[in-house]
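Researcher: Let's continue the batch. This sequence belongs to DNA polymerase alpha subunit B, and it's 614 residues. Same format as the previous ones, please.
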Amino acid sequence: MSTASIKEDWLLVSVLKSRQIPNFWQSVRSLLDHINSSSSCIAPGQKICEIYGITPQELQYKWEASIYSHNKNFVSVREAARFTLESLASVRDQIKRELEQGRDSAKKKTKARSLASGVATIDRNKIPFALGRNMHTAQRVSKPQIKIDPETINLGEITVSSRDPTLAGPGQIRFQGPKTDLESRKKRAYRYMFEKTSERGQVLDTRIEEMAELIQQHYGIQELSNPAKLTDNEVYVVGRIVHNLESDAKLTEATLTLETSRRLSDHSGKRISVRLDPALKIRGGAQGAGGLGMFPGAVIGFKGKNGGTSTFSATEILVPPALASSPSMKPSLDDDSYSTMVASGPFTPDTDLRYIPWATFVHALRRTKPGALILIGPFVSAVHPLIQAGEIDETPLELFHRIFLNPLRNFLSLSPGSIVILVPSVRDLISTHTVYPQCEFSKLVTKSDPRIHLVPNPCTFSLNGITFGATSVDVLFHLQKEKVLKRGQEVDSVIPLAPEDTGADPLANDCRQLLQQRSFYPVFPVPVDLSNEVNLDVTHSPDLRLDYETEDVAPDILILPSRFRHFCKSVHSSTAINPSSLIKGVYSTINVSSSAPGKSLKERLQTEVVKMDG
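Model: Same format as before. Here are the structure tokens for DNA polymerase alpha subunit B:
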């Protein structure tokens, strides 16, 4: 037996023993004594259960299947039921074959799905790069010694536990992510560059009408009117903010234009300029904000009238209501506390491909052993100067495996109760889906490791019932760049749910507008000078909804990486976190204490931005 094989067996034995299965050895002995009078099979049987992670009852089932399939002619039932060393070896060989077949099947299915998608794209994982001299300084990481059977794992909802009291992190983490059935994955991995103008228009119209219905119900409005129609009295209208100039100029109060849906505009679809009254009122905004930021793509309501000058004169702005708070959870009988670390890319500066910030972070990761690790791309950036210049001697997938996957799997072996969540970026070379919204990475990226969860961009998921929303797009920078702030008199302002949510913080108000617009990316169209960061697929923009998985409910934690300074802020009922970028030497931590009667989620959460040493 090779040294690697011995190490592999011992590693698996130690991992399985850490589970501390109640009465494990008693069950093994009871079963084997029952089926064989000879004690010579007990130790080998225990060894098989340890190595392959099966229970004694499962071992019995596999033995029976193996015996009855290979031996058709038995002298007697008693002889067929004998459990011998020879039959035990046959069972072990059969288990090995099943594992190998499971791995091959997973690879074939992945390859078949990529071929059947019919997308005329290039597999960027196989792009040949020119030989370079830069990568010899990177440290090679040994391959983790662990066996995994991806076909036996339900990736939709997985519960992992940590029983070792010396390990930090949770006693138990319940991960609930996007649906992983074939139909759901196929829908997220849609064919892009096939948009039709009619489909784009329909999606844009539908969004206006959904927001119009929301505003109408919230403010008790009897009827919405067409802003382009002449009126003597003030009416209520809802529409999307757009430019009235065909240029790249920033939106201003003078260029403010409103576009309604075809249904709300009597099928005319006409745009109309909006003139804001000097004594403008802002209804339903955050208390203390003193104004509202408006940007192209925002859907808001106005009260005013069209006096016949091809202009809608607005005296009041109706702010869309923010998403509702998540319902309070019942206290868990088990320990539901856990810790989370959040890091966002890029993970190496433009000057080299040594990934030194990532290596520093891995040291902190191994020392802290959080229950969950959330990593947000780009991991292997398509715009990195050295990669663009061909100064690399391996494929992007090989680079990811060496730099990221191997250290992650080593960490997960050290902390068996932990999980990792990967959020892709449209700049990632290891992704074959370069549009937004973006589907999750292929299982080839993580070699189908069930402890590493692949989620789309953007995504919503939950850990122990606490919901997270995350995206790798710098939506805060895009929104801040495009918006125009209009001051006005506050009317029926929303009282903050936390003392620190004063309404005066510009970045917190930008996060609040995401909750009000119910979208991870409400800006439309994408700013021309930032279009290389977001290849927006309008037809599939409904997948950008913040409440896509939980209707009308805001995520408890909103992770929004941005080039702005890092922060952790309370925004309405959510906690917004900007972990910045690992190349700036910072990451975020989230600690969740145990639930208890009368203890709110805000009281359980402790968020922090950590500065790395070095």
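Researcher: Any comment?
Model: Confidence is low (pLDDT under 50) at residues 1-25, 30-38, 72-81, 109-171.
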